[in-house]
Every structure is written in structure tokens, then in C-alpha cells.
């Protein structure tokens, strides 16, 4: 039993900060991760892409426009992260777009994000782009293969993670209706849970997933009424931009 598997199977639902405490600090930055730890979340969700030279960075969008000052620094706002070097990514401000209070905040590498989060919570790593081998190498280097959960919409990638590192827990992201075919595809990846769009999750879908031995996370739930509906239906993990506000709905040990 790894620490991540123990957490996945805890008796109470998990509180998971979406992109860090992203209602209080710029998403996918170290201040957002630290703020989530201060709330006392179980997990911090983050997104990653590779830089042009193959270094995983925490970042949500495909291009740098919305959340960085790439236009000022690199002369081009709509550059894709995958075509930008590590050297240039490290020059960017990833906080000022959110508020001048966060000016000077870097776009963090996945490695430094794990160093920030793991001492206080577990990381729910969402792969947006990048190969499984690079992630598994990083987790091995940091001795974290059993201490994080990896999720993705690309289920072939998750199967690769599991092949390379069978002890690593993976969760299949998805949306829309859940049926027997969904469960067959999930089972083929070796996933131990599903992370589903909240509005598509019915009580009967949650029951059906549980009957297959899967845990169920929902994204992204900021409305207390929606959180209550899902928790009453037996949800196992609430992925939210507002962990401080929803914290009391999830009983602590
Ligand atoms: O946790 C899953 C959820 O984050 C997927 O959507 O666009 O916020 O990465 P997105
Ligand atoms: Ca995400």
C-alpha cells in the first residue's frame, strides 16, 4: 500500500485545490500551492506541459497569452509553451496578470512545484502535454512514484505511466455520460479512479464506478450546493478553486 493509494481509499472525501488555491492566488504558481497548503487540503491539483527543450512546467493553457507577460518579454504573446525554451520560460512573470500583488511570480517547473507541495499534501498531477517516461523519471528521481496521483484526458498516456511505474496511481479524466464502454476503457489503463466533469456526474454513475472498485473525483466544484449534491451521492474527491470556502463540507479526520 503506497501513501497515494492509502489517501485514495480514505474513508472521507478528499479536498483538492484546483491549480492550487486559484481563487486566492495565480493558478499553477508556488503562491497558489502554498495557499492551498495553508487551507489544509489533501491534494493540490496542477497542470503541466513540456518546454521546447523537454522540461515539465506547471501551466494550464497551450499558449502563454492569458497568464504571462510573454508579449512584453519575448515580443510575442501567443507563443506556445511547447515552442518556448526553458531559459525563456524562466524569464516570465506568471502572477501579474492575476494581481499586482503577485508581480514577480515565476512560472514554476514541475520539479520545484513537487518540492513545494509534497511536504504538506499530495500532488494530483494533470498532464496536458509531454511523454510518460519524462514524468516517471522525475518521480523516480524524487522518490515520489508512490506519493502522487497522475491524471489525464489522454488515457493512452496513463497506460504508459502504469506500464513504466505500476505502483503509481492514475485517474482517467473525462466528461459526458458514463457507460459500460467507459468502464472497459478505464480498466484497460489500469486506472484506480475517474475524475469527471461535475455536471455530468449522477448518483447512479458514482454508484456504478464504486461497484467497479473505482474512486470518483469531480471537477471543478465551487458552488456549495453542487458540492453537497455530489458528496451526498458518495463522491470521493472534490476538485475546487475555493478550498477554503468548501473545506467545512468535507469532514476532517
Ligand atoms: O482536474 C481536472 C480539471 O482540472 C480538468 O480541467 O481545464 O481545469 O485542466 P482543466
Ligand atoms: Ca487541470
UniProtKB/TrEMBL annotation:
One of its GO terms (biological process) is lipid metabolic process. It comes from the Bacteria. Keywords: Hydrolase. GO terms for molecular function: glycerophosphodiester phosphodiesterase activity. It holds the Pfam family GDPD. Residues 13-250 form the GP-PDE domain. Its EC number is 3.1.4.46. PROSITE patterns: GP_PDE, PIPLC_X_DOMAIN. InterPro entries: GP_PDE_dom (IPR030395), PLC-like_Pdiesterase_TIM-brl (IPR017946). Transmembrane segments: none annotated. This is Glycerophosphoryl diester phosphodiesterase. It comes from Kolteria novifilia.
